[in-house]
Amino acid sequence: MSDFHFDTRAVHAGRDAGPIQDPDEPRPEGMGTPVVPGIQPSSGYYFESLDALDQAFDDPSRGYVYARHGGPTTAAFARAVADLEGADGALAFGSGMAAIHAVLLAAEVGPGKGIVASRDLYGATQGLLTNVFVPQGVQVRLVDATDSAATRRAIEAERPRVVYVETISNPLMRLVDLPALAEAARAVGALLVVDNTFASPYVCRPLEHRADAVVHSATKYLAGHGDVTAGVVAAREALLPGLGLVSRLVGGTLGAFDAWLALRGLRTLSLRMERHCANAMHVATSLAKHPRVGRVFYPGLPDHPQHALAGRLFGGRGYSGILSFELKDAGAREVRRFMDALRLVLPAPTMGDVYSLALYPAQASHRGLTAQQRAALGIGDNLIRLSCGVEAAEDIIRDVAQALEAAQLR
Q: Domain boundary residue among 266, 281, 306?
Protein backbone atom coordinates (compact mmCIF):
# COMPACT_ATOMS: atom_id res chain seq x y z
CA MET A 1 0.00 0.00 0.00
CA SER A 2 3.03 2.26 -0.43
CA ASP A 3 1.20 4.42 -2.99
CA PHE A 4 -1.41 5.52 -0.42
CA HIS A 5 -1.13 8.46 1.96
CA PHE A 6 0.29 8.04 5.48
CA ASP A 7 -3.17 8.31 7.09
CA THR A 8 -4.56 5.55 4.87
CA ARG A 9 -1.61 3.23 5.45
CA ALA A 10 -1.97 3.65 9.21
CA VAL A 11 -5.66 2.71 9.09
CA HIS A 12 -4.92 -0.47 7.12
CA ALA A 13 -1.87 -1.42 9.19
CA GLY A 14 -1.35 -5.15 9.46
CA ARG A 15 -3.60 -6.26 6.64
CA ASP A 16 -0.59 -7.74 4.84
CA ALA A 17 0.08 -10.01 7.78
CA GLY A 18 1.02 -13.11 5.80
CA PRO A 19 -0.51 -16.47 4.97
CA ILE A 20 -1.34 -17.57 8.51
CA GLN A 21 -3.68 -14.65 9.28
CA ASP A 22 -4.02 -12.78 6.00
CA PRO A 23 -7.61 -11.40 5.91
CA ASP A 24 -7.60 -11.88 2.13
CA GLU A 25 -6.73 -15.58 2.40
CA PRO A 26 -9.11 -17.74 0.29
CA ARG A 27 -11.84 -19.31 2.41
CA PRO A 28 -14.58 -21.86 1.80
CA GLU A 29 -17.49 -20.54 -0.22
CA GLY A 30 -19.94 -18.62 1.92
CA MET A 31 -17.45 -17.88 4.70
CA GLY A 32 -16.74 -14.18 5.29
CA THR A 33 -13.33 -12.58 5.53
CA PRO A 34 -12.51 -10.89 8.84
CA VAL A 35 -11.88 -7.16 8.65
CA VAL A 36 -9.36 -7.30 11.51
CA PRO A 37 -6.34 -9.63 11.36
CA GLY A 38 -6.41 -12.24 14.09
CA ILE A 39 -3.94 -13.11 16.83
CA GLN A 40 -1.57 -16.03 16.37
CA PRO A 41 -0.24 -16.78 19.87
CA SER A 42 1.47 -20.11 19.15
CA SER A 43 4.90 -20.50 20.75
CA GLY A 44 5.98 -23.13 18.22
CA TYR A 45 5.33 -24.26 14.64
CA TYR A 46 5.60 -27.69 13.04
CA PHE A 47 6.45 -28.59 9.44
CA GLU A 48 5.66 -31.45 7.10
CA SER A 49 9.27 -32.68 7.39
CA LEU A 50 12.45 -32.12 9.35
CA ASP A 51 14.09 -30.88 6.17
CA ALA A 52 11.47 -28.12 5.90
CA LEU A 53 12.01 -27.18 9.56
CA ASP A 54 15.76 -27.13 8.99
CA GLN A 55 15.34 -24.79 6.04
CA ALA A 56 13.05 -22.50 8.06
CA PHE A 57 15.67 -22.17 10.80
CA ASP A 58 18.13 -20.92 8.18
CA ASP A 59 15.66 -18.85 6.15
CA PRO A 60 12.88 -17.09 8.13
CA SER A 61 11.00 -16.37 4.90
CA ARG A 62 10.11 -20.09 4.78
CA GLY A 63 8.03 -19.83 7.95
CA TYR A 64 8.07 -19.25 11.69
CA VAL A 65 9.61 -21.85 13.97
CA TYR A 66 9.53 -20.47 17.52
CA ALA A 67 7.95 -17.36 19.07
CA ARG A 68 11.26 -16.00 20.36
CA HIS A 69 12.35 -15.86 16.71
CA GLY A 70 9.15 -14.05 15.78
CA GLY A 71 5.55 -14.72 14.84
CA PRO A 72 2.96 -13.44 12.40
CA THR A 73 1.18 -11.01 14.73
CA THR A 74 4.39 -9.46 16.03
CA ALA A 75 5.78 -9.28 12.51
CA ALA A 76 2.62 -7.58 11.25
CA PHE A 77 3.01 -4.81 13.82
CA ALA A 78 6.71 -4.40 13.04
CA ARG A 79 6.05 -4.23 9.29
CA ALA A 80 3.37 -1.61 9.81
CA VAL A 81 5.77 0.61 11.78
CA ALA A 82 8.47 0.12 9.15
CA ASP A 83 6.03 1.21 6.48
CA LEU A 84 5.01 4.36 8.38
CA GLU A 85 8.63 5.27 9.16
CA GLY A 86 9.81 4.57 5.61
CA ALA A 87 12.23 1.87 6.83
CA ASP A 88 13.41 -1.28 5.11
CA GLY A 89 12.19 -3.36 8.03
CA ALA A 90 11.55 -3.39 11.76
CA LEU A 91 11.57 -5.64 14.81
CA ALA A 92 9.28 -5.35 17.83
CA PHE A 93 10.44 -5.77 21.42
CA GLY A 94 8.90 -6.10 24.86
CA SER A 95 9.54 -2.45 25.81
CA GLY A 96 11.11 0.72 24.54
CA MET A 97 14.19 0.14 26.68
CA ALA A 98 14.57 -3.36 25.21
CA ALA A 99 14.42 -1.80 21.74
CA ILE A 100 17.13 0.75 22.61
CA HIS A 101 19.35 -1.96 24.07
CA ALA A 102 18.83 -4.13 21.00
CA VAL A 103 19.69 -1.49 18.43
CA LEU A 104 22.90 -0.57 20.24
CA LEU A 105 23.90 -4.24 20.42
CA ALA A 106 23.03 -4.70 16.75
CA ALA A 107 25.21 -1.68 15.91
CA GLU A 108 28.08 -3.54 17.61
CA VAL A 109 29.09 -0.86 20.08
CA GLY A 110 31.97 -1.94 22.27
CA PRO A 111 35.51 -1.02 23.32
CA GLY A 112 36.82 1.30 20.63
CA LYS A 113 33.32 1.59 19.13
CA GLY A 114 31.70 4.14 21.38
CA ILE A 115 28.60 6.30 21.52
CA VAL A 116 28.15 10.04 21.22
CA ALA A 117 24.75 10.80 22.71
CA SER A 118 22.66 13.82 23.50
CA ARG A 119 22.78 14.79 27.14
CA ASP A 120 19.04 15.55 26.88
CA LEU A 121 17.88 11.95 27.01
CA TYR A 122 15.18 10.10 28.90
CA GLY A 123 16.62 9.26 32.32
CA ALA A 124 16.43 5.49 31.84
CA THR A 125 18.26 5.79 28.51
CA GLN A 126 21.04 7.69 30.25
CA GLY A 127 21.07 4.97 32.89
CA LEU A 128 21.39 2.26 30.23
CA LEU A 129 24.35 4.03 28.66
CA THR A 130 26.20 4.83 31.87
CA ASN A 131 25.30 1.82 34.05
CA VAL A 132 25.27 -0.97 31.45
CA PHE A 133 27.40 0.00 28.46
CA VAL A 134 30.15 2.02 30.18
CA PRO A 135 31.07 -0.86 32.56
CA GLN A 136 31.40 -3.05 29.46
CA GLY A 137 34.13 -0.78 28.15
CA VAL A 138 31.99 1.35 25.84
CA GLN A 139 33.09 4.99 25.66
CA VAL A 140 30.01 7.20 26.05
CA ARG A 141 30.27 10.93 25.51
CA LEU A 142 27.26 13.10 26.31
CA VAL A 143 26.98 16.35 24.36
CA ASP A 144 24.62 19.26 23.87
CA ALA A 145 23.19 17.94 20.63
CA THR A 146 21.23 21.15 20.06
CA ASP A 147 24.61 22.71 19.23
CA SER A 148 25.25 21.13 15.83
CA ALA A 149 28.75 22.57 15.43
CA ALA A 150 29.92 21.35 18.84
CA THR A 151 28.32 17.95 18.26
CA ARG A 152 30.04 17.65 14.90
CA ARG A 153 33.40 18.35 16.57
CA ALA A 154 32.68 15.70 19.21
CA ILE A 155 31.79 13.17 16.52
CA GLU A 156 34.97 13.94 14.59
CA ALA A 157 37.07 13.62 17.76
CA GLU A 158 35.44 10.44 19.13
CA ARG A 159 34.72 8.66 15.81
CA PRO A 160 31.94 6.67 17.53
CA ARG A 161 30.03 3.69 16.25
CA VAL A 162 26.66 5.31 17.11
CA VAL A 163 25.33 8.84 17.44
CA TYR A 164 22.19 8.62 19.60
CA VAL A 165 19.63 11.42 19.95
CA GLU A 166 15.92 12.05 20.48
CA THR A 167 13.82 13.84 17.87
CA ILE A 168 12.23 15.86 20.69
CA SER A 169 13.98 15.61 24.02
CA ASN A 170 12.40 14.45 27.25
CA PRO A 171 11.29 16.57 29.10
CA LEU A 172 12.48 19.98 27.82
CA MET A 173 11.23 19.56 24.25
CA ARG A 174 14.58 20.42 22.63
CA LEU A 175 15.23 19.52 19.00
CA VAL A 176 18.34 18.45 17.11
CA ASP A 177 19.19 19.17 13.49
CA LEU A 178 18.81 15.63 12.16
CA PRO A 179 20.18 16.22 8.63
CA ALA A 180 23.28 17.94 10.04
CA LEU A 181 23.92 15.13 12.54
CA ALA A 182 23.34 12.47 9.88
CA GLU A 183 25.96 14.11 7.69
CA ALA A 184 28.44 14.32 10.57
CA ALA A 185 27.83 10.68 11.54
CA ARG A 186 28.29 9.38 8.01
CA ALA A 187 31.51 11.34 7.59
CA VAL A 188 33.15 9.13 10.25
CA GLY A 189 31.28 5.89 9.48
CA ALA A 190 28.92 6.16 12.45
CA LEU A 191 25.24 5.25 12.58
CA LEU A 192 22.63 7.83 13.55
CA VAL A 193 19.97 6.29 15.82
CA VAL A 194 16.99 8.45 16.73
CA ASP A 195 14.41 7.92 19.46
CA ASN A 196 11.25 9.20 17.77
CA THR A 197 8.82 8.44 20.61
CA PHE A 198 7.81 12.05 21.35
CA ALA A 199 7.13 12.84 17.70
CA SER A 200 5.81 9.58 16.21
CA PRO A 201 6.06 9.04 12.45
CA TYR A 202 3.00 11.26 12.04
CA VAL A 203 5.03 14.33 13.04
CA CYS A 204 8.54 13.35 11.95
CA ARG A 205 10.20 10.50 10.06
CA PRO A 206 13.93 10.62 10.88
CA LEU A 207 14.90 8.19 8.12
CA GLU A 208 13.78 10.85 5.64
CA HIS A 209 16.46 13.02 7.24
CA ARG A 210 19.09 10.28 6.66
CA ALA A 211 19.02 8.58 10.07
CA ASP A 212 19.94 4.88 10.05
CA ALA A 213 17.50 3.58 12.65
CA VAL A 214 14.48 4.83 14.57
CA VAL A 215 13.45 3.65 18.04
CA HIS A 216 10.02 3.95 19.66
CA SER A 217 8.60 3.17 23.01
CA ALA A 218 5.47 1.84 21.33
CA THR A 219 3.86 1.94 24.76
CA LYS A 220 3.29 5.62 24.01
CA TYR A 221 1.86 7.18 20.83
CA LEU A 222 2.03 4.13 18.55
CA ALA A 223 -0.24 1.96 20.73
CA GLY A 224 -1.79 5.02 22.32
CA HIS A 225 -4.30 3.65 24.81
CA GLY A 226 -2.31 2.91 27.95
CA ASP A 227 -2.80 -0.85 27.71
CA VAL A 228 0.42 -2.04 26.04
CA THR A 229 4.12 -2.14 26.91
CA ALA A 230 6.18 -2.47 23.73
CA GLY A 231 9.14 -1.16 21.75
CA VAL A 232 10.14 -1.21 18.11
CA VAL A 233 13.20 -0.49 15.99
CA ALA A 234 12.70 0.49 12.34
CA ALA A 235 15.93 0.52 10.36
CA ARG A 236 17.74 0.43 7.07
CA GLU A 237 18.56 -2.94 5.54
CA ALA A 238 22.14 -3.13 6.83
CA LEU A 239 21.04 -3.22 10.49
CA LEU A 240 18.22 -5.74 10.15
CA PRO A 241 20.27 -8.99 10.31
CA GLY A 242 21.95 -7.83 13.50
CA LEU A 243 18.64 -6.79 15.02
CA GLY A 244 17.16 -10.17 14.20
CA LEU A 245 20.11 -11.95 15.79
CA VAL A 246 19.86 -9.87 18.98
CA SER A 247 16.11 -10.44 19.14
CA ARG A 248 16.49 -14.21 18.86
CA LEU A 249 19.41 -14.57 21.28
CA VAL A 250 18.58 -11.97 23.92
CA GLY A 251 14.90 -12.90 23.88
CA GLY A 252 13.17 -9.54 24.11
CA THR A 253 10.66 -10.27 21.33
CA LEU A 254 7.22 -8.72 21.74
CA GLY A 255 4.42 -11.20 22.45
CA ALA A 256 1.48 -11.72 20.12
CA PHE A 257 -1.24 -10.26 22.35
CA ASP A 258 0.60 -7.00 22.99
CA ALA A 259 1.52 -6.83 19.30
CA TRP A 260 -2.14 -7.15 18.34
CA LEU A 261 -3.13 -4.38 20.75
CA ALA A 262 -0.34 -2.14 19.45
CA LEU A 263 -1.43 -2.82 15.88
CA ARG A 264 -5.00 -1.93 16.79
CA GLY A 265 -3.81 1.34 18.31
CA LEU A 266 -1.68 2.17 15.30
CA ARG A 267 -4.77 2.37 13.07
CA THR A 268 -5.90 5.58 14.76
CA LEU A 269 -2.43 7.15 15.00
CA SER A 270 -3.14 9.97 12.55
CA LEU A 271 -6.45 10.91 14.16
CA ARG A 272 -4.99 10.82 17.65
CA MET A 273 -1.83 12.74 16.78
CA GLU A 274 -3.77 15.47 15.03
CA ARG A 275 -5.81 15.96 18.21
CA HIS A 276 -2.83 15.55 20.56
CA CYS A 277 -0.88 18.22 18.69
CA ALA A 278 -3.80 20.62 18.46
CA ASN A 279 -4.55 20.26 22.17
CA ALA A 280 -0.92 20.78 23.14
CA MET A 281 -0.78 23.97 21.10
CA HIS A 282 -3.93 25.30 22.82
CA VAL A 283 -2.64 24.38 26.28
CA ALA A 284 0.87 25.73 25.67
CA THR A 285 -0.53 29.03 24.39
CA SER A 286 -2.78 29.32 27.44
CA LEU A 287 -0.03 28.48 29.92
CA ALA A 288 2.36 30.98 28.31
CA LYS A 289 -0.07 33.73 29.36
CA HIS A 290 -0.77 32.41 32.86
CA PRO A 291 0.64 34.60 35.66
CA ARG A 292 1.58 31.58 37.79
CA VAL A 293 3.59 29.88 35.05
CA GLY A 294 7.18 30.71 34.21
CA ARG A 295 8.65 29.21 31.06
CA VAL A 296 6.69 26.94 28.72
CA PHE A 297 8.67 24.47 26.62
CA TYR A 298 6.87 23.62 23.38
CA PRO A 299 8.38 23.80 19.88
CA GLY A 300 5.09 25.00 18.41
CA LEU A 301 5.36 28.31 20.25
CA PRO A 302 7.00 31.09 18.20
CA ASP A 303 9.38 31.94 21.04
CA HIS A 304 10.78 28.40 21.26
CA PRO A 305 14.47 28.73 20.29
CA GLN A 306 14.13 25.96 17.69
CA HIS A 307 10.71 26.82 16.34
CA ALA A 308 12.10 27.36 12.83
CA LEU A 309 13.96 24.03 12.94
CA ALA A 310 10.73 22.32 14.05
CA GLY A 311 9.02 23.74 10.99
CA ARG A 312 11.69 22.29 8.71
CA LEU A 313 11.73 18.87 10.36
CA PHE A 314 7.99 18.44 10.93
CA GLY A 315 6.61 19.95 7.75
CA GLY A 316 3.56 21.52 9.36
CA ARG A 317 2.14 18.25 10.68
CA GLY A 318 2.27 19.40 14.30
CA TYR A 319 4.73 19.69 17.17
CA SER A 320 3.87 16.70 19.39
CA GLY A 321 1.24 16.43 22.07
CA ILE A 322 3.71 16.96 24.91
CA LEU A 323 4.87 20.13 26.58
CA SER A 324 6.54 21.06 29.82
CA PHE A 325 6.36 24.16 31.97
CA GLU A 326 7.77 25.65 35.14
CA LEU A 327 5.73 26.88 38.06
CA LYS A 328 6.78 30.46 38.80
CA ASP A 329 8.62 31.01 42.10
CA ALA A 330 7.90 27.45 43.18
CA GLY A 331 9.60 24.26 44.26
CA ALA A 332 8.83 20.63 44.98
CA ARG A 333 6.20 21.43 47.64
CA GLU A 334 4.14 23.55 45.25
CA VAL A 335 4.51 21.01 42.45
CA ARG A 336 3.10 18.32 44.73
CA ARG A 337 0.13 20.49 45.59
CA PHE A 338 -0.45 21.15 41.90
CA MET A 339 -0.26 17.46 40.98
CA ASP A 340 -2.54 16.43 43.84
CA ALA A 341 -5.12 19.02 42.80
CA LEU A 342 -5.55 17.75 39.24
CA ARG A 343 -8.99 16.24 38.61
CA LEU A 344 -9.05 15.42 34.87
CA VAL A 345 -5.34 15.14 34.10
CA LEU A 346 -3.93 11.93 35.54
CA PRO A 347 -0.63 12.10 37.48
CA ALA A 348 0.97 9.04 35.90
CA PRO A 349 4.60 8.30 34.88
CA THR A 350 4.01 7.84 31.15
CA MET A 351 2.81 9.78 28.09
CA GLY A 352 1.17 9.39 24.72
CA ASP A 353 -2.15 7.96 25.93
CA VAL A 354 -5.62 9.14 24.95
CA TYR A 355 -5.82 10.49 28.51
CA SER A 356 -4.01 13.66 29.55
CA LEU A 357 -1.15 12.81 31.88
CA ALA A 358 1.11 14.91 34.11
CA LEU A 359 4.55 13.85 35.32
CA TYR A 360 7.06 15.37 37.72
CA PRO A 361 10.45 14.68 36.06
CA ALA A 362 12.46 15.11 39.26
CA GLN A 363 10.42 12.30 40.82
CA ALA A 364 9.81 10.06 37.80
CA SER A 365 11.56 10.18 34.42
CA HIS A 366 14.81 11.66 35.80
CA ARG A 367 14.73 10.46 39.40
CA GLY A 368 17.93 8.48 38.77
CA LEU A 369 19.89 11.72 38.39
CA THR A 370 21.11 13.85 41.27
CA ALA A 371 19.65 17.31 41.82
CA GLN A 372 22.91 18.76 40.50
CA GLN A 373 22.75 16.62 37.35
CA ARG A 374 19.16 17.63 36.73
CA ALA A 375 20.00 21.29 37.26
CA ALA A 376 22.85 21.03 34.75
CA LEU A 377 20.34 19.80 32.18
CA GLY A 378 17.88 22.58 33.00
CA ILE A 379 15.42 20.30 34.79
CA GLY A 380 14.41 22.26 37.88
CA ASP A 381 12.37 21.18 40.87
CA ASN A 382 9.52 23.32 39.53
CA LEU A 383 9.26 21.57 36.14
CA ILE A 384 6.14 19.62 35.12
CA ARG A 385 5.65 17.58 31.95
CA LEU A 386 2.16 17.44 30.45
CA SER A 387 1.07 14.91 27.85
CA CYS A 388 -2.13 16.25 26.30
CA GLY A 389 -4.71 13.60 25.56
CA VAL A 390 -7.61 13.73 23.14
CA GLU A 391 -10.15 15.29 25.51
CA ALA A 392 -11.59 18.74 24.78
CA ALA A 393 -8.73 21.23 25.01
CA GLU A 394 -10.89 23.60 27.09
CA ASP A 395 -11.32 20.94 29.76
CA ILE A 396 -7.58 20.29 29.97
CA ILE A 397 -6.90 24.02 30.26
CA ARG A 398 -9.57 24.46 32.94
CA ASP A 399 -8.24 21.56 35.01
CA VAL A 400 -4.66 22.81 34.86
CA ALA A 401 -5.81 26.32 35.77
CA GLN A 402 -7.70 25.18 38.86
CA ALA A 403 -4.72 23.09 39.97
CA LEU A 404 -2.47 26.13 39.59
CA GLU A 405 -4.80 28.05 41.90
CA ALA A 406 -4.88 25.17 44.39
CA ALA A 407 -1.08 25.00 44.47
CA GLN A 408 -1.13 28.38 46.32
CA LEU A 409 1.84 29.72 44.45
CA ARG A 410 3.38 32.91 45.75
A: 266
